[in-house]
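One thing: mind reviewing this one?
=====
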Amino acid sequence: MRRTWMLVAVSSLVVASLVGAGSGSVAETRPRDHIGAGHAVATKGATTFEPNANVVSTLRFGTGRIVVESGDQVRWVHRDSDPDPHSITIVKASEVPESIGEVFAGECASCDQAAEGHFAGGGLVRKVEDDDDGEFGLDGPGDSLWLNPGAKITSVVSAPAGTRVRYICFIHPWMIGTIKVA
C-alpha cells in the first residue's frame, strides 16, 4: 500500500505543470467503439522520469465524460504505456481533486475503502462493491475496478437514470472521469 501512495506522490509532481497548462472544455459524449462492442473507455498517456530533474505524466482516461443508460456495460481498457495498473473508483463529488494540493493530500475515503477492498484477504480482487447486494455494478462511492497493464475489464453501470457518477484512478488521482446516466 505504501508503494502505491509513493507512486501517487512521485507521479503527481507532473500534475502541477499539467494543471497550469490550461484546460479546454470537454464535451460529454457516448463512448466511441474503438476497442470492441459496446461502450469503451481506454487509458492513454505515459509517464517519464528523470531523477532529480523531471517527472511528467500525461496519464488520463481517453474519454473523460461519457453518457450511458442505467444497465449499460462499459469496457475499460489499459492502453497507455505506463507499467502501473489503474483503478476505476467511484467517488463522491467532494473527493475529486481540483488542485495539485488536493492530489497530494490523498484525502479520499472512497479511494481508501476501494484500495482495502482490492487487497482484502491477501490477494487481488478485480471488482470491489460497496453495497454487497450480490450484483456488481458501478453505482456508488467505493465501487472499484482494477485494471492491470494491457488488460480490459467490463462492468455494468447500475446507477439510476438522472445521476452523475464520478470516478478516479486512486493510484493516479489526476485521472478523472464522469459518467452521466441517462
